[in-house]
Amino acid sequence: MTVDQHEWLAFAKSIALKAGDMIVAFREENAFQKDYKLGHELVTSADLAVDQLLVSSLAEKYPTHGIMSEESFPNLDLGSQDENVPVWVIDPIDGTVNFAHGHKHVAVSIGLYLGGERILGVVNAPFLGECFWALRGQGAYCNDAKLSVSGAIDLRNALVATGFPYVKKDIATILARVSNVLHACQDIRRNGSAALDLCWVAAGRLDAYFESVKPWDMAAGALIAEEAGAYVGHYASTQNEWPEVVDGESLLVSTPELCEKLCVLLK
Ligand code: 2AM
Ligand code: CA
């Protein structure tokens, strides 16, 4: 691991913690307004302010790096980035609906990839006092505690998380998948933050997670899950030109023993 990577991680953690404090303050002071992107997708003034903090901090510290962020640079062409340039992929608030409804399952997500590899991930859950992080090849942590997946091998006893998109046009297919899994596993959770679902698989609190999400929802959590020993892949082939490591479509994350059984149910 290079000196650069340790320094990038330390900086990512520092801004994720600052962003987390900002999110808590916005809610304690009830100082945010709601709006709807494309008429249905909730965004708050807190999402925009935290996005600004993260993007401006990264751009100032690393002017040559690429940045994809949900609120200000969602359309960065990930497929045509120079492979020698590190690219930050960030979600200022993952779990916006939870945030706006007073729930605690909310996270700041900051991932970095380089040359087609996930390099680091930080997922800070400020209302829960948990900061998850990982550096490629160095394991995954929650605060100072090392993480590892549950080791579940039997689908019948597995707790599986998923989520539903803002746009409901494919909901029948999604519900058919949920039905297949629900019949085979112990139970299903819909926690509302993809980044935290990935971290909870890493921590062994969930045995699996599947959903189609955007790069910023999964870029950081994918490395955290991978470094904790999870299978991180796709239950179906995807159409995107994005590098596979930040492609959240048809995402499946699970203990290594459960992935094939789940793939069969999700096809
Ligand atoms: P967001 O909070 O950044 O929008 C949960 O299923 C994941 O998908 C979250 O990471 C959330 O990201 C996103 N998401 C997409 N559609 C959603 C919906 N209808 N309700 C809540 N979250 C949604
Ligand atoms: Ca978001």
TrEMBL record:
Source taxon at top rank: Bacteria
Source organism per UniProt: Marinomonas sargassi
Residues annotated as signal peptide: none
UniProt-listed InterPro entries: IMPase (IPR033942), Inositol_monoP_metal-BS (IPR020583), Inositol_monophosphatase-like (IPR000760), Inositol_monophosphatase_CS (IPR020550)
Cofactor(s), by name: Mg(2+)
Name by which UniProt lists this protein: Inositol-1-monophosphatase
Catalytic activity entry: a myo-inositol phosphate + H2O = myo-inositol + phosphate
CDD domains named among the record's database cross-references: IMPase (cd01639)
Family membership: Belongs to the inositol monophosphatase superfamily.
E.C. designation(s): 3.1.3.25
Keywords associated with the record: Hydrolase, Magnesium, Metal-binding, Transcription, Transcription antitermination, Transcription regulation
